[in-house]
Design goal:
alpha/beta; 5-stranded parallel beta sheet; 23 strands
């Protein structure tokens, strides 16, 4: 960014002075790795010192001006008593039209982020403004603060005049270098992508994209690798406990540390320590091994099912594949080379405005349902989807789809995502997602893991998950709990341009329902009552809604079967998931001619309970146990399979009189 562009920014800027202070350092004193909390000016008044800003060295004598961007790392080494004024400020482009124009022209550049140092041609003029600024700032009255802002503009004008006269070379602060340096110095602390973005005055998405282009890693992946490398060193070079090592590298939960270590290295920390020490003894070589912040991880063909991680070579968020060298020296050299290349790399080009984002579009769109709709733009291979959150521009043919909870409908449409929230082992579509990355529970996905997967489309089921992930990639929120199965499928289909496939699936489901109803009617079962329960000896939940799950949609909504009158009255008026928790003593009143009981591993065995065993449906063999995992989901894929199961079991059970 040229100096004249910076001047244009100041013409459209709103500013706030955050702090101004005078600092005196003794001869020989040092300031190391101080992170500027805001954009700032450093103006030396007397003495000499060597200043470093983001690794760039400046020799400061009296009357030297240095400007640094927020997040820059400052080092000072004094030669004699050294006095300077430090002025912090915040500035932003005040007018929306100019701000939009700026972002379209150079989205990779943060305004007011130039770094430069120079000796003013008229130093006392700048000092006068700074002295007056300091005096007004100390008073802190409303009128004084207004005066401070006025003096700040005058100070900026005088400085820009002198910069232009001397044709001072300026450079942009590199947020990737800043992030690398920050992680190396602060990996023990709580660090998030949002925090890093705020620290260096960039959006989370933009910082992540720039960082990954220059280094091949996301910022959080780099943080994890840095922590793992430090942990490896400690495991090899010390007898510290696992808890001590976890705390030292930034993890308060030793169990979580062990899990993430195993995920990225391939074996547990203790196994790694034992393996490396055994190899050291076998090869008769020193135990101290060079470790880089980012190094290759140990490969593992198989890792057990702990926390649903099922993978070969990696975990639920696989890194880019790298070859494993047999020489540790080559490993260290390769890792150091990568780091140096990352730090010296120039700023990469960014996508054009609107590319790969969920920003609103001016394109018109035709709604397919009340919640979402789509319109394909063949020129740039995108589709504008109308959602409850506004229009979202998505890829016409997404290749890297992340979906939370709604994976059954996605699978039914013939799409295999790259990652989903955890799926119960007994889910109808479990086998269809073999090899797909797991992101944890659907309501608490790991955004860092999602970023690392570099998705081009995200589908979420809640406001919370939408807010959490919307800045990573185009994100579509499907309010599934307010939709029927058909409406939900149509909404998801519109995102992929698969409306015809959805229509076929719905027609096939309706045909199956009609055939199933006729089969049950012919067998004299369709008009019998049916109950769905879940629980054990201490109490039972009786399902009282078509939207509860556990087969309620298959039985009550699609097949149209009825519950006992006391339950049916609630089913007829309840539109959301509902059920009553009952004691075993009153349970018989709520049980119909047939009873479906949802069971799971560890469920109570009710065989010897006299009340349960006396219920006619149970006593006469019309008890049908259903697997919790299999009947948990209500997508069209699952409902199809559940219908098959329900009809088969009803036909096989003794007939109710």
């Amino acid at each position: 960014m040229q100096l004249d562009e910076q001047m244009k920014c100041w013409n459209h800027a709103a500013v706030k002075v955050l702090d101004i202070r005078r600092i005196v350092m003794e001869a020989g004193a040092q300031l190391s790795s101080y992170t500027l909390p805001a954009n700032g000016f450093i103006y030396t008044i007397r003495g000499t010192a060597q200043l470093q800003l983001d690794g760039q060295t400046y020799k400061a004598e009296r009357f030297y001006m240095l400007h640094g961007a927020k997040g820059s790392s400052l080092d000072i080494q004094t030669n004699e008593e050294f006095e300077y004024i430090l002025l912090y400020y915040r500035a932003f482009l005040a007018f929306p039209s100019y701000r939009k124009k700026w972002l379209l022209a150079q989205p990779e550049v943060a305004p007011f982020s130039l770094q430069y140092g120079f000796t003013p041609s008229s130093p006392l003029g700048l000092l006068r403004y700074l002295d007056e600024l300091e005096g007004a700032w100390v008073q802190s009255g409303s009128l004084d603060l207004l005066h401070t802002k006025s003096l700040f503009y005058q100070f900026i004008h005088e400085m820009m005049v002198q910069l232009a006269e001397q044709e001072i070379k300026t450079e942009l602060a590199d947020p990737v270098k800043q992030t690398l340096r920050y992680i190396q110095n602060h990996y023990r602390e709580q660090v998030t992508l949002d925090f890093l973005a705020e620290q260096f005055n960039y959006s989370s998405r933009h910082l992540s994209m720039q960082f990954k282009r220059q280094t091949g890693y996301s910022p959080i992946d780099y943080l994890i690798q840095t922590r793992i490398a430090k942990a490896r060193n400690l495991l090899l070079r010390s007898d510290a406990t696992l808890s001590e090592i976890a705390a030292e590298v930034g993890y308060s939960d030793v169990y979580y540390f062990s899990r993430i270590f195993k995920k990225h290295v391939g074996i547990s920390p203790i196994q790694y320590q034992r393996k490396m020490r055994e190899e050291a003894r076998t090869e008769d070589r020193p135990l101290v091994i060079s470790e880089s912040s980012i190094g290759p991880r140990w490969k593992s063909r198989y890792i057990d099912c702990e926390n649903h991680y099922q993978y070969i070579d990696g975990g639920s968020t696989p890194m880019k594949r790298r070859k494993t060298s047999s020489s540790m020296i080559m490993v260290a050299l390769l890792s150091i080379t990568m780091l140096l290349a990352a730090c010296s790399s120039g700023t990469a080009q960014t996508p054009a405005a609107g590319e790969g984002t969920g920003a609103s579009s001016n394109n018109s769109s035709t709604a397919v349902s009340s919640d979402t709709g789509s319109q394909t733009n063949k020129d740039n291979e995108t589709r504008t989807v109308s959602t409850v959150k506004g229009d979202v521009v998505v890829p016409a043919n997404p290749k890297r789809v992340v979906v939370l909870y709604l994976q059954g409908d996605v699978v039914a449409l013939g799409i295999k995502p790259i990652a989903t929230s955890e799926v119960f082992n007994g889910a109808a579509y479990k086998s269809e997602l073999e090899g797909v990355n797991s992101l944890g529970t659907w309501f608490e996905p790991n955004p860092e893991a999602v970023i690392d997967l570099d998705p081009d489309l995200i589908i979420v089921p809640s406001e919370e998950t939408y807010t959490l992930l919307k800045d990573i990639a185009p994100t579509v929120y499907i309010p599934y709990e307010k939709m029927t199965t058909e409406e939900r499928l149509q909404s998801i289909a519109s995102v992929f341009g698969k409306e015809q496939e959805a229509e076929t699936l719905i027609n096939n489901l309706n045909s199956k329902v009609e055939e199933s109803k006729q089969t049950l009617a012919d067998a004299g079962i369709l008009d019998k009552t049916v109950s769905i329960v879940e629980g054990g000896l201490k109490g039972m939940v009786v399902v009282e809604s078509k939207q509860y799950g556990r087969g309620s949609q298959a039985l009550y909504e699609y097949l149209g079967m009825k519950a006992p009158e006391v339950v049916q009255k609630k089913i007829d008026v309840v539109s959301e998931a509902g059920g009553s928790n009952l004691s075993m003593e009153v349970l018989p009143e709520y049980i119909g001619d047939y009873v479906f009981r949802s069971v799971y591993e560890g469920a109570d065995n009710l065989t010897d309970d006299p009340i349960w065993s006396s219920i006619p449906a149970v006593k006469e063999g019309r008890l049908i146990e259903i697997d919790f995992d299999f009947f948990y989901y209500s997508d069209i894929y699952s409902v199809n399979k559940q219908l098959d199961f329900v009809v088969e079991k009803l036909l096989a059970a003794p007939r109710a009189q």
